[in-house]
Amino acid sequence: YRARHKDGSWVWMETVWESSFEGLDGSKRRLLVTRDVTRLKATRDALRENEERYRTVVESTDDVVTEHDAKGAVVFASPNIHAVLGRSRSEIYGRDLLSLIHPDDVARVAQNFFDAASSHLPTRFDAYRVRRGDGTWAWFQSTGISYRHRNGESRFLNIGRDISGIVSQELERQ
């Protein structure tokens, strides 16, 4: 609830029933604790706004956003992974990143992944192939960065783009 502060501004308050006890006169008493939660509410509102913004970006982009644990297993995939790669999110969760990469590209992508994971700097992954759900190969280019998750684990965030059309045009010109 909101209350007017002595300076005239409005603040958000929270009241919690801490305990009940018997007073010296035998009457029932309650201990209520009230505190100003204006900053806490502002922080929660900002967090919710950031989460909504992130969700909107991830759900509206044509790029595929994936998050991987320290071993490369997929722990998050954007909803459009089905439209781009023909794979469901549930199908890809827990899979090793490298299991989807073309055999000729695995060594290079693995080296980039582990270099990026240790540097904590944004790393660009030049053209590499990813297996689609139908068994064909999509050419991808991505940028990724490692970070420390709130649970202390090392994580890797990857944003990839299907560049198959561009690669096909370049091959036709040659």
Describe this structure in words.
The structure is a single chain. Helices cover 32% and strands 37% of the residues. It has 174 residues and is of the alpha+beta class. The strands form 2 sheets. The chain has a 5-stranded antiparallel β-sheet, sandwiched between helices. Strands 1-2-3 form a 3-stranded antiparallel β-sheet. A hairpin with a 5-residue loop joins β4 (64-68) and β5 (74-77). It is elongated and about 95 Å long.
Pick out its properties.
3-stranded antiparallel sheet; 174 residues; 5-stranded antiparallel sheet; single chain; alpha+beta
Task: Give the SSE layout.
Blueprint: E1 2-4, E2 10-22, E3 28-36, H1 38-60, E4 64-68, E5 74-77, H2 81-85, H3 89-92, H4 106-119, E6 123-131, E7 137-148, E8 154-162, H5 164-173
Antiparallel strand pairs: 1-2, 2-3, 4-5, 4-8, 6-7, 7-8
Short description:
The strands form 2 sheets. Strands 5-4-8-7-6 form a 5-stranded antiparallel beta sheet, with helices on both faces. The protein has a 3-stranded antiparallel beta sheet with strand order 1-2-3. The chain has 174 residues and is α+β, with helices and mostly antiparallel strands.
Tell me the overall shape.
elongated
Characterize the main sheet: 5 strands, antiparallel
Head-to-tail CA distance between termini:
69 Å
Mean residue pLDDT: 91
